[in-house]
Amino acid sequence: MQLAASQLEAFVTEIFVAAGAVENVARQTAGHLALANLKGHDSHGVVMAPSYVTNIKRGFLNPHAHMSVVKDSGGVVLIDGGTGFGQVVGAESTAFAIDRARDNGIACVGLRNAHHLGRIGTYGEMCADAGMVSVHFVNVVGHEPLVAPFGGAEARLQTNPFCTVVPRVNGPPIVLDMATSFIAFGKVKVAYNAGKTIRNGALVDHEGVPTNDPNVMFTRPGGSVQPFGLYKGYGLALMCELLGGALVGEWTMQPAHERTGTVINNMLMLVLNPEAFGGTERFQQEIDGMVDYLYATKPAKGVDKVRIPGEPERETFADRSVNGVPVDERSWQELAGAAKLAGLAEDAVAKYAA
To answer: What pTM value is reported for the model?
Structure first.
């Protein structure tokens, strides 16, 4: 089925309210998820809502939590998310970092103990809207590992996101937002729900043999997601684990920590004010010149044009804003199940299904 993002946002908002969140928190979180769908990141969209509801019911997600400053050293700040909605405490922490960078030229902010932060690019885009450069190292803990280290046949890491965003005055920001795995696990889940295969290189089975079948991630003995770029992606994933996890969260995937089945993110965020360097004008001139130079590249055979990071998401956003967001039947049934678990009335679910 195809649904307008506004419908998905309204439905998920009602689900979160029924599960115990206040209206504005529910709407902010649902809006973040629906925006991820609009930008083509279905893995970080409304498909995540059922796990959020489950974690509220299990006491792993506190829908009323907000950020709290644990340690403030001026340029370096440690924030605790209190296992609150990541979309809420993540946005609060980013706004805090922007204000601090505006005053000091730089802010190094660690956010620990946040429930799933969602699409990290959202926080980078917040910084870009304020004219700031940002870099984000994120680790994922709380459940069994999914990603094998380079050369391994057993999972030891998660899909640890890395993101960096550069603002542009004369155009949309340049947004590099990626999992350090070959593919985000949410995309494996989307393919599994839709009964589709996964492209080559993304998965191995429990013996380390490459496979296109997403079912290997949902059976026992289980398979693993591969790092992107062989040892390069593995190395970057490890740095996210050590900087976001060990440094900020003091919580990594090493087995001394209990794995209860929740999803917790820890994030090290660097926010830089261009005015503290050579100034915004020269910085933007160089960005525009570089972007124009890239756009002038002769496209390879079979490619329509060269794009910059973040452009595919904007193209998908334009298409889905008009034509709606595709939702497969299994994902819809999981959303309906989450609504029932949250206590939403059946007629409210039927309203959106219609």
So the answer is: 0.94
